[in-house]
């Protein structure tokens, strides 16, 4: 069931999104060779607490961390750890913020030191594909319009879009209907309505789109060991067009 959000709920989610966005802006300053993803995770939990917020995914189905931290060939759901990031790595930090029951979700990828031209191009295309998907988040459009725009842009650049993991509705709980695919057919799928809030979160690989799951049961990585990256915003469907609730420029 798709839950439409009231103006009050949207305002609350936007406040959660501003905290999340400001946290990403602080993480950006921390990303350097030598820092560990566990240190970033500890910072995030402390930062959210300072603003009266909590990390929603901590405790979700037994998950132990405030963030997911996915490095290089890890697609998503990487566990933060003590291993120092090294020059040339790319890392995605994904988090869901709960502020007085209102949720916001955003992932962002970061370059560690000097990265390869291939990695830089991958990150650029993945981020641009997210914004192209967001442009399609208009009242009356369909979910297939979002997925098609993302998929065609990514594939035209020679990369692939992960199928196994998708965006989703969000609001009162972390994962609500509908699923928001990063591939699809224009004009197909659920029609977008005012009051819907969804995440748009393409995961883009250098090589094959298929993944494998680590023994921890959580971490997904590329099946061929090639790089992957992800960008994600929480987006409200409004009569005036898409409203990014996790916009880092507005935090």
Characterise the protein shown here:
The protein has helices at about 5-30, 35-50, 115-135, 145-155; strands at about 55, 70, 75, 90-100, 100-110, 160, 165-170, 175-180, 195-200, 205, 210-215, 220, 230, 235-240, 240-245. The chain has a single domain (about 5-250), classed as Creatinase/methionine aminopeptidase superfamily (Creatine Amidinohydrolase, Alpha-Beta Complex), CATH 3.90.230. It has four helices and 15 strands.
Pick out its properties.
4-stranded antiparallel sheet; Creatine Amidinohydrolase; alpha+beta; 15 strands; 3-stranded antiparallel sheet; globular; 28% helix; 251 residues
- Average pLDDT value? 97
- Continuous helix count: 4
pLDDT < 50 runs, ≥5 residues:
none
CATH architecture, by name, is Alpha-Beta Complex
């Amino acid at each position: 069931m798709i839950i439409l959000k009231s103006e009050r709920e949207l305002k609350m989610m936007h406040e959660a999104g501003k905290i999340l966005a400001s946290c990403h802006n602080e993480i950006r300053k921390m990303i350097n060779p030598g820092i560990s993803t566990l240190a970033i995770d500890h910072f995030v939990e402390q930062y959210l607490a300072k603003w009266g917020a909590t990390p929603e995914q901590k405790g979700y189905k037994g998950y132990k961390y405030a963030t997911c931290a996915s490095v290089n060939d890890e697609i998503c759901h990487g566990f933060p750890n003590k291993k120092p990031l090294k020059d040339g790595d790319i890392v995605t930090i994904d988090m869901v913020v709960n502020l007085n029951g209102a949720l916001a979700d955003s992932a962002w990828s970061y370059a560690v030191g000097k990265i390869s031209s291939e990695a830089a191009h991958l990150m650029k295309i993945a981020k641009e594909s997210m914004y192209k998907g967001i442009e399609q988040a208009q009242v009356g459009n369909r979910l297939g319009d979002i997925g098609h725009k993302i998929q065609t842009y990514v594939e035209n650049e020679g990369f692939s879009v992960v199928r196994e993991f998708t965006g989703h509705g969000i609001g009162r709980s972390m994962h609500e209907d509908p699923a928001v695919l990063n591939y699809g057919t224009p004009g197909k799928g659920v029609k977008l309505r005012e009051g819907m809030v969804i995440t748009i979160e393409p995961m883009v690989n250098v090589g094959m789109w298929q993944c494998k799951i680590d023994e921890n049961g959580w971490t997904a990585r590329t099946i061929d060991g090639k790089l992957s990256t992800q960008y994600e915003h929480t987006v409200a469907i409004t009569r005036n067009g898409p409203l990014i609730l996790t916009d880092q420029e507005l935090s």
